[in-house]
Design a protein that fits this description.
alpha+beta; 23% helix; 3 helices; YaeB-like fold; five-stranded mixed β-sheet
Amino acid sequence: MTSTFDRIRTLVSDGNVRISEHGYDELAADGLLVREMVEGVGNAELVEDYPGYPKGPCVLLLQRTRDGRLAHTVWGLPAGQTEPAVLVTAYLPDPAKWEPGFRRRRR
């Protein structure tokens, strides 16, 4: 069985991508570029996996921008569908909520 992350990477590689309205808003709010986030999926690191999310399986990824900043992206698949890969949101993680490196939430 293919993981959600593997499926997302394949879809993004094939150009089968949609950006949510919320995703566009959050990208703009943090000065992140759609192109960077889409192109960076191949080198992204899986932080959290949500296979049973009600709106469809999704993953939280850690990605780098071209200028070296670390960003979180949430990519998902629509419930009951196998495509497209949807960029749900993207943001610069808050150091107060994440441990250094932004791979684990602070407790």
